[in-house]
Write a structure and sequence with these properties.
The complex is a heterodimer of chains A (119) and B (225).
Chain A (H helix, E strand, L loop, with lengths): L1 H25 L3 H22 L23 H32 L13
Helix pairs in contact in A: 1-2, 2-3
Chain B lengths: L1 H20 L10 H14 L4 H9 L1 H23 L13 H23 L8 H18 L7 H26 L21 H26 L1
Helix pairs in contact in B: 2-3, 3-4, 4-7, 4-8, 5-6, 6-8, 7-8
Classes of the chains: A mainly alpha (119), B mainly alpha (225).
């Protein structure tokens, strides 16, 4: 129980990652697989932010002179996630465009019926 | 069968994650480099927002790489959707109230997005966030005034110019002081709009680039529907 108390954010982040992986592995509909990719992306971003968190921390921005710098969270993962979110959107859009073309070519989004996508 | 195998596989993964996560404490400062950025960031880069100084100054080269990834994703989407596109069908115009509301909101959202990326070194925000807000303004126009299209040449060239500007500013630093992306402009007084040297310049370029790129993605996807 103490693990849950102190690590609830990690549990949430990896819960999202595992849910996303499960969807990618199990679902047959390509749109659902892409939704799983989005959930996985969110989980990874959340985990990176959690790693940089400092207890009772504030954003690493000196909004006025003399701001206390003792309780600021780590800025490096925040900078990483900032760009990763925008890239995640672009990659999701790319995956959706491929799904559109795949649907026009095969007439279905079911990965079991597309012979080349079967595994 | 597949479900059972997947659940087994994922539980093994979860066990491995659990065993390694118990070694990582939550909520304590971990990296010395982050502490250094917070303590010395204002002195070294002149930017009050430490995240911005990490994105554009300390890790500027990584950001160039990430912008390139974004560019490749947007270009790949355009290529995939351009091949074999059918003729666009006539669209039904939206109602008068919706169209007028969108036309009123559009410039306000553009101004807000520009504010976000111009003040990236002072307040929360920056080029990526401001660009996303600007793209949302274009999405509103596409939903409200359906017959309107943005000029494809304009956003393509704006996107390319933004990326080119980033590289050129980095190369000027290389020529002046011997480092790529050297902060060669005067850093000025912190907490002022005109401070932090090349950081706002680069972030404005990134803002234009991300905004036009995401607007292009929206344009391509809407023309497909």
């Amino acid at each position: 129980m103490s693990f849950l108390n102190s690590y609830i954010y990690y549990v949430g982040a990896f819960g999202l990652i595992l849910i996303g992986l499960y969807i990618i592995l199990v679902k047959h509909n390509l749109i659902k697989v892409i939704i799983g990719l989005g959930i996985l992306d969110t989980g990874v971003n959340l985990f990176l932010i959690c790693v940089g968190y400092v207890a009772k921390g504030t954003a690493p921005i000196f909004s006025r002179p003399g701001t206390d710098s003792e309780h600021m969270v780590d800025p490096v993962p925040q900078a990483l996630v900032l760009t990763a979110i925008v890239i995640g959107v672009a990659v999701l859009a790319l995956a959706l465009s491929l799904a559109i073309r795949l649907y026009q070519h095969y007439g279905t989004l079911n990965l079991r019926k597309i012979r080349e996508q079967k595994w | 069968m597949r479900k059972i195998i997947s659940i087994l596989l994922l539980s093994i993964v979860a066990l491995g994650i659990y065993l390694s996560l118990t070694k990582i404490p939550f909520g304590v400062p971990k990296s010395k480099v982050g502490k250094h950025y917070i303590d010395e960031g204002i002195k070294e880069t002149g930017a009050v927002n430490i995240v911005t100084s990490v994105v554009v100054s300390y890790r500027g080269f990584d950001t160039l790489g990430e912008v390139t990834v974004l560019f490749i994703a947007a270009t790949g989407l355009a290529v995939v959707l351009k091949i074999g596109r059918r003729k666009a069908t006539a669209v039904e115009p939206a109602s008068f109230v919706l169209a007028t509301g969108c036309r009123v909101l559009f410039p306000l959202i553009l101004v807000f997005g520009s504010y976000i990326f111009i003040h990236g070194h002072l307040t929360p925000g920056g080029g990526f966030q401001g660009g996303a807000i600007i793209a949302s303004a274009f999405l509103l126009i596409y939903l409200g005034c359906r017959e309107r299209r943005i000029n494809e040449k304009a956003y393509k060239s704006l996107e390319s110019l933004g990326g080119l500007f980033f590289v050129v500013v980095g190369l000027i630093g290389l020529a002046v002081g011997g480092y790529f992306l050297l902060n060669f402009l005067p850093k000025g007084q912190p907490y002022r709009l005109l401070s932090a040297g090349i950081i706002p310049v680069i972030y404005i370029a990134i803002g234009f680039k991300v905004g036009s790129e995401l607007a292009g993605i929206i344009d391509n996807l809407i023309e497909e529907s």
